[in-house]
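User: Structure tokens for this complex, please. No commentary.
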Amino acid sequence: GKIIFVEHNSTEHVAKLDVGSTLMQIAVTNAVPGIDGDCGGECACGTCHIVVDGQWFNRTGEIADVEEQMLSMTPERTDTSRLGCQVKVTEEMDGMIVYLPEFQM
Ligand code: FES
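Assistant:
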């Protein structure tokens, strides 16, 4: 399985679908630029903002209150924005496309 990260300049990074990890961990492990994960996944920094492809968004699960709070402070938030550290990867996400914002906080 795989997850495809697409940078703002269209550069694609194909990463292994690592079930049980978070999208932030996968991005960091694969050295995908634009996802820093400064707080280590505590939902406290907002440096793991990602934009999920619209067709895949409903597979990323619920947004908890803490994540909603961080996202509300993210200027580049879109309708399909998530914090990568709050999205646990499942088999259902095989082939998912994830976009990186132009600027990361
Ligand atoms: Fe800090 Fe996601 S890694 S909010």
